[in-house]
Structures are given as structure tokens and as C-alpha cells.
Specification:
This protein has 420 residues and is of the alpha+beta class. The chain is built from six helices and 29 strands. It starts with a helix and ends with a strand.
Length: 420
């Protein structure tokens, strides 16, 4: 009897140990974080990739969150970037977004229960490089044959910029297979000088940048080159439209009539004083001055039937000058709107603003039968012949207006041309 009781006691003790062990195992399992693995990375491009995970054990408690976390650090956690995918056990897929091109990332699957967060192993991958990102610089310094643009590269796409510049065409979507400039390498700002353009033509321009992935473009801008004029000697003049008139924006430099006959260059004072036929000179007989101020002509050149201005253009009459000044508000204020501003080509401070783009300069004059200097007034006054008998217009450095008057035909004045 005692033996049987001992057996029962031993059995109860053993059963108690078993129950304690089972309870301990269950308690420990319910306090475990989930166990899982990280799925290999796929579909990698410039800014996205696909991963995920497989939960092997929920740790004995409900999964409350799962997904992948990623970082440029080797052990990303849920404190870094992460996805939030559907709940439950088993496998899940995660779409990773918002990445940067050509960057190495580390990814780990994660799952969270009441005990905490478990992680899979970290897997690394590198995003694909992208095309450069850039903008096109506004067009400036437009002439009949040239202009300035450029670009600003905000991203190299994770790859080295090997070429950059602007491409242009008369079509609305220029590419690097059209005309283009080459303006160095690398990111940041660059300037492009466009040359060899055709006058009075609409062009479309885009900045471009090339890396190993290809070529990226900025937005397309358009501009129109100026309607230039070329004289018989090959000098190129820009033009400007003022009201209903189109003027060249420089003083004339031609030394031949339109039929090709040369205009005599008279440097001797006495010979100049006694002329009754056409002639020209440089201010102070210094040819370099004409690069800026143009030539000085006597009135006989202006009225010569062989013509001075290029075909389709003429020396303005006194009435033409009056139309110009009237459009600008009258002779008393027109000068400031016509003269080059900021003391360019004029002596001393003045109120000129050149709002018209006419760019009048104080080219001075050559006198005839002078009792003082043969050449006078450069930078102080400008004088321009009209085609009306002996009539001229003038502007001075400090005045706001345009004066008119008559002079002897032997004076040497500047000439502007007006479109027919």
C-alpha cells in the first residue's frame, strides 16, 4: 500500500514538473519577437526597388506591423525609412520608393509583435544611375547672328557629366543631333555663346547634359534674331523698330557707294574745305575711331545718286526724323530715349536711357573753313545728316532733346540708315 502511494506521489511530482516546463515554454514563446528572412532585391531602377520578407515565426503573438526598412547605414531599423505591408504570417512583398540614383542602400525585413521587432538579415543593393536634371538659362545678348544662353545642372543623375551645352534649331524640340555648343563637364551653371545664326529667324534652344545613362534636357526657350543689315563693305548692323520705322543701331561705316564706286577718303584740311563732291573721313583722321563712331561724310555723299545706304534702306529725310521724335514724345525729350546710356559714347553724367535701342553716340564732326580745330565735339555732341537739303539733327551729352538745323554741305557728319 505504501509502495503504491509512493508511486502516486512520484507520478504527481513528475506531472507537476512537466506542467511547469510546458507553461515555461509557452510563456517564453509568447515573449519572443518574430523571426523572419529578407527577400532578395529585384526591379531596381533609379528611384525604386522591390523586396519583402517571409515570417518564419510570429513569436507566439499577433504580428502588428511588417515590411522592410532601408538606409545607407548597414543595419537599418524601423526608425529609418520603411514600408508598412499587410499583416499576418508568411511571405510579403514591399515596394521601396523615394531612392536616389546610383546610391548604395541596405534593406532588412522587419515584423513587430507585442514583444518587439524582429529583423531579417541586411541585403545591400545600388540604384541605377539616372539622366541629368537641368534648366535652360534665359536668352540674352541677342543680335542678328549671335545670342547667349546656357544652363544649370541640378543633378548629375548619380553619374559623371561628360558633356554639356545648349542645342538649337528652327524646329521646336532641338536635340544634340541638331546644332549644339560644348561647354565643359560637371554640374552647376554654364554659359553658352551661340554664333553663326541667321538674321530675323526664330530659334528654339534647350540646355543639355550627358552622362553614361544618356542625355537630359532643360525646357525649350525661343528667341528671334535681329533683322541685321550688311553694307557693301561687309559691315553688319543690327536694327531696331521704333514705332513704324526700322533704323540701324550704329552710325554708317561704308566707304563705297552702293554701285561699288569708292568714296574718297580726304584727310587734308584744305582739300576737304574746297570739296564739291562726296568724301568721307575718320574722326581726327584716326581709322580706329570709326569702329565705334562710324565715318563722317559730307553732304555731297548723302545726295549722290549712287546711294550710300544698303539696298532697301535710305538716308532719312528731315520729315523722317520728325516722325521719330514725335513718336518719342517730341524733340525736347527724344534725345534721352535715343542716346546710349551710362556715359557710353558721351561725356560726363547724363540722363540718357536708350530705351529705344537706337544707341546714338557723340561722334563729333569735321568742319570746313574752320578757324579752330578741324575735328570737334567727340563724346560731347552727335550730328546726323538728313537727305533734305543741308538739314541735320543733333544731340548733346547733357541735354534731353534732339535739335535740328541747317549747315554747309562741307561739314562732316554721321549718317544713320532708315528702312524703305
Amino acid at each position: 500500500m505504501k509502495k503504491i502511494n509512493r508511486i502516486k506521489i512520484y507520478s504527481l511530482i513528475i506531472l507537476g514538473f512537466i506542467l511547469i516546463l510546458i507553461n515555461s515554454c509557452n510563456k517564453n514563446d509568447s515573449n519572443n519577437v518574430p523571426a523572419l528572412i529578407t527577400t532578395s532585391i529585384g526591379n531596381i531602377d533609379e528611384t525604386t526597388a522591390i523586396s519583402g520578407g517571409k515570417i518564419i515565426s510570429d513569436g507566439g503573438a499577433t504580428i502588428t506591423a511588417r515590411g522592410v526598412c532601408w538606409s545607407i547605414k548597414q543595419t537599418p531599423t524601423i526608425a529609418d525609412n520603411k514600408t508598412a505591408d499587410s499583416l499576418g504570417k508568411g511571405s510579403f512583398t514591399s515596394t521601396i520608393t523615394g531612392l536616389s540614383p546610383n546610391v548604395a542602400y541596405y534593406v532588412r525585413a522587419y515584423a513587430t509583435n507585442i514583444a518587439g521587432t524582429g529583423y531579417g538579415s541586411a541585403i545591400s543593393f545600388t540604384t541605377v544611375g539616372a539622366l541629368p536634371v537641368l534648366t535652360t538659362t534665359a536668352i540674352s545678348n541677342i543680335t542678328g547672328t549671335t545670342a547667349t544662353s546656357g544652363g544649370y545642372i541640378t543633378s548629375d543623375g548619380g553619374e559623371t557629366i561628360t558633356k554639356r551645352g545648349v542645342c538649337l534649331s528652327t524646329g521646336q524640340a532641338p536635340t544634340i543631333y541638331n546644332s549644339k555648343t560644348l561647354d565643359g563637364t560637371g554640374t552647376g551653371n554654364f554659359t553658352s555663346n551661340l554664333a553663326g545664326l541667321s538674321a530675323n529667324t526664330i530659334y528654339f534652344v534647350r540646355a543639355y547634359a550627358t552622362n553614361s545613362k544618356g542625355t537630359g534636357y532643360g525646357s525649350t526657350l525661343s528667341f528671334t534674331t535681329l533683322n541685321i543689315v550688311i553694307d557693301i563693305d561687309g559691315h553688319v548692323y543690327d536694327t531696331v523698330t521704333i514705332g513704324t520705322q526700322v533704323w540701324i543701331t550704329e552710325n554708317l561705316k561704308v566707304i563705297h557707294y552702293c554701285n561699288g564706286d569708292p568714296i574718297p577718303n580726304i584727310t587734308d584740311d584744305q582739300q576737304w574745305n574746297h570739296l564739291t563732291t562726296g568724301a568721307y573721313c575718320d574722326y581726327d583722321n584716326t581709322p580706329g575711331s570709326s569702329l565705334t563712331y562710324g565715318k563722317l561724310y559730307n553732304f555731297y555723299v548723302v545726295i549722290d545718286s549712287r546711294k550710300l545706304c544698303p539696298t532697301g534702306w535710305h538716308v532719312p529725310s528731315d520729315a523722317d526724323w520728325s516722325i521719330l521724335t514725335a513718336y518719342l514724345g517730341g524733340e525736347s525729350v527724344a534725345g534721352d530715349k535715343l542716346k546710349a546710356c551710362c556715359m557710353n559714347g558721351w561725356y560726363g553724367p547724363n540722363t540718357a536711357n536708350n530705351e529705344t535701342g537706337f544707341t546714338a553716340l557723340g561722334g563729333g564732326f569735321r568742319c570746313d573753313y574752320c578757324t579752330y580745330n578741324e575735328f570737334n565735339d567727340i563724346d560731347w555732341n552727335g550730328y546726323w545728316w538728313s537727305s533734305t537739303w543741308y538739314k541735320y539733327r543733333s544731340m548733346n551729352w547733357h541735354g534731353s532733346g534732339v535739335s535740328n538745323g541747317s549747315e554747309s554741305p562741307g561739314k562732316g557728319f554721321s549718317v544713320r540708315c532708315l528702312k524703305d
